[in-house]
Specification:
Largest sheet: 2 strands, antiparallel
Structural class: mainly alpha
Helix content: 55-70%
Strand content: under 5%
């Protein structure tokens, strides 16, 4: 039940001040933490993520690298601020139209006409947005889209169209719409998520790069190659900043490497569509090498990357090698506990059974 915030990451030092003339009596960590503690509706994880971005940005203004880290042993989510106190002390109620005047009371400002408090809404949204892999693996498109629509409705009505909650709901919806083959809808959802995330975290943050990856993929399918190419180059340039020039990336998690592999895989597909097979295979090789090095073999991403590389090889006329990677894809999907009836897994099994 403990949540611990650290002022800096492993091996880093925490700034007490930005300079000798800094008038703020608090450290860089504390001065950014205090306002967030009073921000209504933030879960402990949202607070930590916002704090990471703010401290990192401020420390960078004096050439110092510092980003807070956290240890979370809390089941579920807690929220801080006035709304959280109200949510704990009062039971949610369904308000009749004539009772709407009660919303003017600051003590009841998080009790909406839906009968749902902000704290309750956040817990529901966190559960939905955290379930994307479950739907990706099951292939239940109808349920996936329904949950996305629910998240959009709750986030929009309770937190508003400029909120991080609405950004997260759109980010969740991208995958649902891609699975439903709604290309235009997925592109709209991705653009919305990117704009909102960029306002909060900046253009190079992983929260921005994930929807950018999906947007670029859909743009390739829509044959909008120029914009897709721009997105891939921007994303890979962001990762180059983490490399000292020898492909050794600094401070990257497994999630970062999965995303990097995804960008290389997408760029390979773009190059193939542009009629540049040799370049496509070279880039796709990078994608496969990165994903193969990730120790967690239960990720569905392994199957996706192997299947994508197999498709690249197939289009380049390397049939035998393509079959080998389709077999690896099928094996990876099985390791990720993806049912054989799910479309990606089923296609990998079908393709691996072909003969050259």
């Amino acid at each position: 039940g403990v949540f611990i915030l650290f002022a800096a990451g492993v091996g880093q030092t925490a700034l007490d001040r930005l300079s000798e003339g800094d008038p703020n009596p608090n450290s860089v960590f504390t001065r950014n933490l205090l306002p967030l503690l009073e921000t209504d509706g933030l879960s402990q994880v949202d607070l930590a993520k916002k704090l990471y971005s703010k401290v990192k940005t401020e420390a960078a203004t004096v050439g110092h690298e510092q980003h807070p880290s956290y240890y979370d042993q809390i089941e579920g989510y807690i929220t801080l601020g006035t709304d959280a106190v109200v949510a704990q002390r009062q039971q949610p109620m369904t308000l009749e139209p004539e009772q709407d005047v009660a919303l003017a009371d600051p003590k009841k400002k998080d009790l909406l006409a839906t009968g749902m408090s902000k704290a309750e809404a956040q817990n529901i949204l966190d559960t939905i947005t955290g379930s994307w892999q479950t739907y990706q693996k099951s292939g239940d498109v109808k349920a996936y889209v329904a949950q996305g629509e629910k998240a959009l409705q709750i986030s929009l009505s309770i937190f508003g169209e400029n909120s991080l909650q609405f950004a997260e709901a759109n980010n969740f919806m991208i995958g649902a719409l891609m699975m439903a083959n709604d290309q235009d809808g997925a592109i709209r959802a991705a653009r919305t998520a990117i704009v909102l995330f960029e306002e909060e975290f900046g253009s190079d943050h992983p929260r921005v790069l994930y929807p950018k990856s999906n947007l670029a993929s859909q743009l390739v399918s829509a044959k909008k190659y120029r914009e897709a190419d721009k997105l891939y180059k921007e994303a890979l340039a962001a990762y180059d900043k983490k490399s000292p020039g020898n492909n050794v990336y600094i401070g990257m998690s497994e999630d970062d490497f999965v995303l990097l592999a995804t960008f290389y895989g997408g760029q390979a597909r773009l190059l193939m569509e542009q009629g540049r097979p040799k370049e496509a295979l070279r880039v796709s090789d990078k994608s496969v090498n990165i994903i193969s090095a990730i120790s967690d073999k239960t990720l569905i991403d392994h199957g996706w990357m192997y299947a994508n590389h197999a498709a690249m090889l197939n289009r380049a006329g390397n049939c035998d090698e393509a079959l080998s990677f389709y077999k690896q894809a099928a094996k990876a999907f099985k390791a990720a506990k993806v049912p054989a009836t799910q479309s990606d897994h089923a296609d990998a099994i079908k393709q691996s059974a072909q003969k050259c």
